[in-house]
Amino acid sequence: MMLNLERYDRQIKLQGFGIEAQEKLASAKVLVIGAGGLGCPVLQYLTAAGVGNIGILDHDRVSLSNLHRQILYTTSDIGKLKTKAAFERLSSMNPEIQINVISERISTKNAIQILSHYDHIIDCTDNFPTRYLLDDACRILKKPLIFGAIYQYEGQIAVFNVEDKKGSSTNYRDLFPQPPKPGEVPDCNDAGVIGVLPGIIGTLQATEAIKLITGIGEPLINRLMTINVLDYQTAIFEMPAENLTDKYIPSTIMEFEMMDYKVQCGIKQIGIKNISPAEFYSISKLPETTIIDVREIDEYPKLEIPYLSIPLSQLKENSTQIKHKNVIVVCQSGKRSLAGAQVLQEILGSDYNISHLEGGINQLNQKINE
């Protein structure tokens, strides 16, 4: 790729940067997984900086509730695949780079093949199964992984799978050896998030990518940075490498492809059926079926079919309200509904057919609007 020196003039002039660093950016191949709140600023700044080959992987579509924080998109993009909308916007920002779109969900079946084409992987996802999946895949493939996460007013950034000066490297599993139980850590669908936070964390992820690619500065290798935007409390923690000898951690591609990360993270349970939005209405019409919404009473949007409203925190003491053998549990994003289904499975036993709506009412409404 021929460098347009005028486009990158201000960063080429930086002391310690120069044309050599710009050429490294032009030769780099970076995969951004997730084109949501974190992915939008990452993609915008890497595109503007002149990263020569950028991959965008996301299977989701733009919704109205995205727009307060996913500022790559506009109202006219609602309903579009995020990959398509991002490609259109980024291509107009910088037509000199190559942008590849992958409009599918990352999985053990496609991760190795997709990740193999890129030098640096940036995790902009919002769920634990995918984070552990990416961590394992990058460790097996020896790919740098730039991690970011947000929760309400707080964010985290780290660089995994890169050796420090002592030859030591850490992984996401060193930071969180055991996944939290479903419902223990709400995502922004349930807990909310201030719109500027993913912009801050995503920008820092892009910064770490540029530092790793060009060799400038000191990336957050083996370190976790946290920031709270309410009071600007910021901390950087050193992360020691743990001895990851757990039998459930894959060490080869074959072992990785046999993993079920939803089971490992408690998202899929024996005896509880995960139903898709497409299946929901047909299953809800089965004889003697009760639909239970485990969100708080004041949460919207409401279902347009008959249901019981029992918040998750009150489910145990109110389980006697359930009179039918077929039970479907729903919530906003699918996390609390799984936790509720587990509670009911323990109380009601195997005589009941317990299901939960994967992706929650968010995915249900998106399916209706497609």
From TrEMBL:
EC number: 2.7.7.80
Record bears the keyword Transferase: yes
Sequence ranges assigned to domain Rhodanese in this UniProt record: 285-369
Family: Belongs to the HesA/MoeB/ThiF family.
Function as written in the Swiss-Prot or TrEMBL entry: Catalyzes the adenylation by ATP of the carboxyl group of the C-terminal glycine of sulfur carrier protein MoaD.
Subunit structure, interactors included: Homodimer. Forms a stable heterotetrameric complex of 2 MoeB and 2 MoaD during adenylation of MoaD.
Protein name per its UniProtKB record: Molybdopterin-synthase adenylyltransferase
Species name: Epilithonimonas lactis
